[in-house]
Design a protein that fits this description.
Elements: E1 2-3, H1 33-46, E2 49-50, E3 57-58, E4 61-66, E5 69-73, H2 75-84, H3 114-127, H4 135-141, H5 150-164, E6 171-174, E7 181-187, E8 200-206, E9 209-210
Antiparallel strand pairs: 1-2, 3-4, 4-5, 5-6, 7-8, 8-9
Helix pairs in contact: 3-5
C-alpha cells in the first residue's frame, strides 16, 4: 500500500528515548483474503492511498514472489554499478577475491582517488543486501577507505568482475523450508599484515538462504 501523505519524522533539538505504548504495533498478516481486503478498504477511507499489488521492486531490490518462495536480487543495480565504473564489458571471474589475498596499508603502491574508491566500496556494500557471497571481500576493502591504493582498487574491480558473471544471483527464501535462524562463527590467527590482529567472522542462514 502506498500512502500519499505520511508524516514520518518529527524534529527535536534533544535526544530522547521512548517506549512505544501497548498496541502501537499492529501486524496484519495471514491468508484470509477477505480480511485483508476489508483492511485495505478501511485504510483507503482514512488515508489517500493506492494498492500497488504484490511488491516487485523495493530500494533497488527486485522481488519475485512465486509459489515456491520469495527471490530477492539486485541485477538492475549491479548493471548500473558496472556501467558507472566502466566494467560492463569486463571478463568475469569465478571468485570475488583471490585465495590467500592479504591487503595492507603499509605496502608501496600508488595511491588512488579516495572519492572514487569510497564510491566503489559503497556500491558494493549496498549490493551485499542480496549478495552475501561478496561480503567478505567487501568487508576487507572497507578497511582502507582512508588509505586506499592501486592494489585495493584492483581488488575492488575484481569483485565487479565476479558480479559480472553472477548477475542473476540473489537470495531465495523457500516456502518449503522451516525458517530457522542458524549462525556460524570462526576467526583467523593474526591475519592483519598491519597490526597482526585477528579477525572474527560469522555467517547466518534463515531457512536455506544465507542472509549475512
Amino acid at each position: 500500500m502506498d500512502v500519499k501523505s505520511a508524516f514520518l519524522n518529527g524534529f527535536l533539538e534533544e535526544e530522547i528515548y521512548i517506549e512505544q505504548p501497548l498496541g502501537f504495533i499492529m501486524s496484519v498478516t495471514g491468508g484470509d483474503k477477505f480480511m485483508l481486503a476489508g483492511f485495505k478498504t478501511k485504510m483507503k477511507e482514512m488515508f489517500e492511498m493506492s494498492d500497488l499489488g504484490l511488491m516487485t521492486y523495493f530500494l533497488g531490490m527486485e522481488v519475485n514472489q512465486a509459489e515456491g518462495g520469495i527471490f530477492l536480487r539486485q541485477k538492475s543495480f549491479a548493471l548500473k554499478v558496472l556501467t558507472k565504473f566502466s566494467m560492463e564489458n569486463c571478463k568475469p571471474t569465478s571468485t570475488p577475491m583471490a585465495v590467500g589475498m592479504k591487503l595492507s596499508s603499509q605496502e608501496d603502491h600508488e595511491s588512488v582517488c579516495e572519492t572514487d574508491y569510497r564510491s566503489l566500496v559503497g556500491c558494493l556494500l549496498y549490493l551485499t543486501a542480496t549478495r552475501p557471497d561478496i561480503l567478505f571481500a567487501v568487508s576487507m576493502l572497507s578497511r582502507f577507505m582512508h588509505c586506499c591504493n592501486q592494489q585495493h582498487y584492483k581488488v575492488g574491480k575484481r569483485v565487479l568482475r565476479y558480479i559480472k558473471g553472477t548477475l542473476s544471483h540473489g537470495i531465495h527464501f523457500s516456502r518449503a523450508d522451516e525458517l530457522k535462524l542458524i549462525g556460524y562463527t570462526d576467526s583467523d590467527w593474526a591475519g592483519s599484515k598491519d597490526d597482526m590482529k585477528s579477525t572474527s567472522g560469522y555467517a547466518f542462514t534463515l531457512g536455506s538462504a544465507m542472509i549475512c
